[in-house]
Amino acid sequence: xxxxxxxxxxxxxxxxxxxxxxxxxxxxxxxxxxxxxxxxxxxxxxxxxxxxxxxxxxxxxxxxxxxxxxxxxxxxxxxxxxxxxxxxxxxxxxxxxxxxxxxxxxxxxxxxxxxxxxxxxxxxxxxxxxxxxxxxxxxxxxxxxxxxxxxxxxxxxxxxxxxxxxxxxxxxxxxxxxxxxxxxxxxxxxxxxxxxxxxxxxxxxxxxxxxxxxxxxxxxxxxxxxxxxxxxxxxxxxxxxxxxxxxxxxxxxxxxxxxxxxxxxxxxxxxxxxxxxxxxxxxxxxxxxxxxxxxxxxxxxxxxxxxxxxxxxxxxxxxxxxxxxxxxxxxxxxxx
Length: 336
Hints:
Layout: E1 3-5, E2 12-14, E3 16-19, H1 30-42, E4 47-49, H2 58-67, E5 76-81, H3 97-111, E6 116-121, H4 130-142, E7 146-151, H5 156-169, E8 173-176, H6 191-198, E9 201-204, H7 235-239, H8 245-252, H9 255-261, H10 265-274, E10 279-284, H11 289-296, H12 305-315, H13 324-328
Parallel strand pairs: 3-4, 3-10, 4-5, 5-6, 6-7, 7-8, 8-9, 9-10
Antiparallel strand pairs: 1-2
Helix pairs in contact: 1-2, 1-11, 2-3, 3-4, 4-5, 5-6
């Protein structure tokens, strides 16, 4: 395993980070989820990412149980706050002081830990003054309940404003968690340069594009049984944008590139996002322990300029790179 600094901080995290979105407490039985976490630990992964909204808090509970007994100081545990949780009442969502303070307490209880290493704003809250949100995060840090603060899917301007306030309030905002893959490159034009300037790293989710970049989905063919594209609990909705024949055809052209590199297609996809200097970690999930072992082989892989160009030539026609897509993902109001 390779390790990278997270933003302009002294915190090192594993460049392959285990995330349990769409799996723990939902798609995967708890015993299998625990096996996946154990596999991650065995492979040298020390960083684990979750969120209170995943499976409506159940994912945090499963992760807490799976990590029980591990030396806490050897782990980096991340979670997030914003989306509706619990009974989804009027204050069970957003980035108000009330929801953040109640959110962190609930997360710590479920994760069975006194603190998280990184507490992240899961989206930008347009209904709460940013000053209120950042003051609440500052207090969470001062209370020792989180060591660092991050955000997820914020625009370049939102990140800049957040960093300025964090400095005034005396804490570190060091990361952003956006979607990023060979197919989805919307952060490259604005978010990455701004983040690099400000000392903020990316922890990227969906580096394998919901599994599409494994090559298992073939154009003109039904998705394999048991795959994410057949999951009615949410997986099929998330992957639907990529289930187009032109995309699936382009992805098949990556197979010889991966073979020439001695990598699986999934490993090539994870390695590709890690070539970006502003990326501190690629988030990978798993529904089986062997998937963890496969993805970890992307750690430390260096892709030369020729390989990067071949990848661009293969998928360039179907890449989504409009930086405006980040702003489009900001909820127009609190989701209840």
